[in-house]
Target: D-inositol 3-phosphate glycosyltransferase
Amino acid sequence: MNSAALTIGFVMLHTSPLDIPGTKDAGGMNVVVQAQAEALARAGHDVRIYTRRSDAAVPKRVEVQPGLAVIHLDAGPARLLAKGEHEAVMDEFGHLLDAELELDPVDLLHAEHWFSGIAALSVARGRKIPLVQSYHSIAAEPDSPLTDGERPESPGRLAGEKLLASEADLIIAVSEAERQTVIDRLGGDPDQIRVVPLGVDTELFYPCVTTVCAEQRDWLKRGGRPEVIVVGRLHPLKGFDLIIEAIALMPAETRPVLRLVGAPPPDGDEYAQGLHEAVARHGMLSTTAFDGALRRSELAERIRAATIMVVPSHSETFGLVALEAAASGVPVIARATGGLREAVIDGTTGVLVTGDDPQVWATEVANLLGDAERLERMGAAAREHAVNSSWIASGERLVEAYSLACAGRTA
Ligand code: UDP
Model:
């Protein structure tokens, strides 16, 4: 262990880093925490991730790798909770966390999402250790219209997020866009916010090299169809419905294969049912694949075999999938919002699109699919852009931020 090694407690109340991303409530946050925690442990830090037990069969402590353990706390029932149910267990989780730290202290707590921040705040204060906060996403404005099928925001969320913006010792944002949102919406102090860019595993996500994959991608020569892939939890915020409507506007004979990857969140699958119905209604059953949630290696294979990725999400703090596609040498058509404006270089690694008009999306998809030279050029530029984003570098930036938070506490 190096001399400046830290003992770091990640707090991740509502979802476990051991869950498969794309299932339950697991998504980008799970991928990020796991990757950063692994990078920190490999760098010699001692890392624990505290999460709520949602399955009675899981052991209390799971050793993931040397220096990295996941610890399950028995707050609330040992079953999956819908998002709104987590507020009721924040206090209990905080008490259990405090009892853990009494036996096995840490140098700092890094809370992921606001539930975790509220649970950890008084623990950190009581123990006189810094609280570092990551939001991952921030509540929509109370009066902002809901996307079709979206559930209303918990009333306590925005207040909780604002409290954390003023009380946490340091806030970690994943993009410049998120940093600005923390300042504008939560009143965060610009000096208390550090942007720690995310990484991508370029050994998992790499461009197509095998013959099978190359054949699949070479749809022009095969006289087949190109493939558009969309990846995310099947939640209204992800805009899957928009891409279905856009592809439906294309003439049936030129429609690409549409591959949708991800599973519904635990609080309902009406949205997913609506997507299946829309595909049937538009006569797209034979050219659309619903893959469900895929494990990382299978997902990586599907992404590198695709012609393009589309990210029609209504909002995205970062948009990890766009970076994963870039690392796979796959151009991305994404909405010009939030972190996607940083993850995609418009005109170079992909195309940014504004608005909800399916015709506009259809035109961008058709234009890119119809230009083999541009596809090739953007794919190469995307890979080049992504290889600079490593999880090791992301972990190093986190440690710099932690050192600032620790120095601030002891000053
Ligand atoms: N993901 C996955 N399997 C799936 C669907 C998604 O591994 O079936 C991963 C995806 O590769 C990405 C993460 O889940 O790493 C989603 O992150 P993103 O930032 O795109 O969205 P979020 O879930 O944070 O809203």
About this structure: Residues 211-386 form a domain with the Rossmann fold fold (CATH 3.40.50.2000). The chain has a mean pLDDT of 92. The first strand starts at residue 7 and ends at 12. The first helix runs from residue 28 to 42.
